[in-house]
Design a protein that fits this description.
Elements lengths: L8 E4 L22 E4 L4 E9 L3 E6 L24 H15 L6 E2 L9 E4 L1 H4 L8 H4 L4 E4 L5 E6 L3 E7 L4 E7 L1 H6 L1 H11 L8 E4 L12 H4 L7 E2 L7 E2 L1 H11 L4 E3 L15 H4 L6 E7 L1
Parallel strand pairs: 5-8, 6-7, 11-14
Antiparallel strand pairs: 1-2, 2-3, 3-4, 4-15, 7-10, 8-15, 9-10, 9-11, 12-13
């Protein structure tokens, strides 16, 4: 369960969800909507990807109060895609309360589809970390840390969110891997920084959050040409489709990571549940996928 405080209540909502056959037996198929945590003002809808006594990994989903006419309706803390600042700030504070940390310890980078990695380490901050200023977050597409009690995450709405954890070393990372970042090797760069903090690739667990999947991800020939042939399919229509999770998986395996969990679901076909830029437009909310080292 989410490490919630006593002021929070939890509601579980059951809604049937069809199997995504494109993923076969490798996909975790949810038949119930995950719990919704409530504080005094906000729902905190979390889909838990991993939990142990050392780490908590989850992704937010939109929640139940979703309006088809409002691409920002639902839980979103991304404050740079046109949403109201008060809404994003309220969601961020609700998530912080749910995770039992001060709001300033929720690290939300301002992503640009690049390859810059922000490293938050004990050698620089010790346990006295009290937040990162906006200038440090600009242009960041991955956060790597060995600090406990820090929520490190990335915002996505079709791009692939990736969490990397070496629980023995106490090192984790959150990575935003859109197609540009994937081609440029953002996952490999994050792994490099984690190794510098003491992580061992053979111990690393890689968890992918919800993203656009191959059957949904139609691209032009110029984009398809930048991916390995194994990641490109022409079985879905006239235009090529790219398997973004497979591309990132291949990069992780090249780094020595074998424990890899594929996305729980595709985003484009579920705009009722997940924010999707292709379904809702770029000016829309975002799903936040994060890791918290305990």
């Amino acid at each position: 369960m989410c490490p919630s405080k006593s002021s929070l209540t939890k509601t579980t909502v059951s809604i049937s969800q069809p199997r995504n056959t494109a993923w076969g037996t490798n996909c975790t198929v949810l038949t119930d909507m995950p719990p919704i945590y409530h504080d005094n003002a906000h729902e905190v809808p979390l889909e838990v990807l991993h939990e142990s006594f050392r780490a908590f990994v989850a992704t937010t989903w939109r929640g139940m109060a979703v309006s088809a006419d409002n691409p920002y309706s639902g839980f979103s803390l991304c404050n740079y895609t046109g949403d109201e600042a008060a809404h994003c700030d309220g969601c961020l504070r609700a998530l912080a309360q749910c995770c039992g940390v001060p709001a300033e310890r929720v690290v939300v980078p301002r992503q640009t589809h690049g390859t810059q990695v922000l490293v938050l380490s004990r050698r620089d901050y010790n346990e006295g970390f009290s937040g990162v200023d906006e200038a440090q977050l600009a242009g960041i597409d991955a956060v790597v840390t060995d600090l406990r009690g820090v929520v490190a995450g990335v915002n996505t709405a079709d791009c692939l969110p990736l969490v990397l954890i070496d629980e023995e070393a106490g090192v984790a990372g959150a990575v935003h891997a859109g197609w540009r970042g994937a081609v440029a090797g953002i996952a490999e760069r994050a792994m490099h920084e984690m190794v510098l903090l003491g992580a061992n690739p053979r111990r690393v667990k890689a968890l992918m959050g919800p993203c656009i999947v191959a059957e949904e991800f139609e691209v032009g020939e110029e984009v398809a040409a930048r991916f390995p042939e194994a990641c490109v399919s022409r079985a879905y229509g006239v235009k090529p489709h790219v398997d973004l999770p497979l591309a990132v998986t291949m990069q992780l395996r090249g780094c020595g990571v074998d424990d890899i969990a594929l996305p729980p679901a595709g985003t484009l076909s579920r705009p009722d549940r997940y924010f999707s830029a292709r379904a809702l437009g770029v000016s829309s909310g975002r799903n936040f996928t994060f890791v918290l080292l305990k």
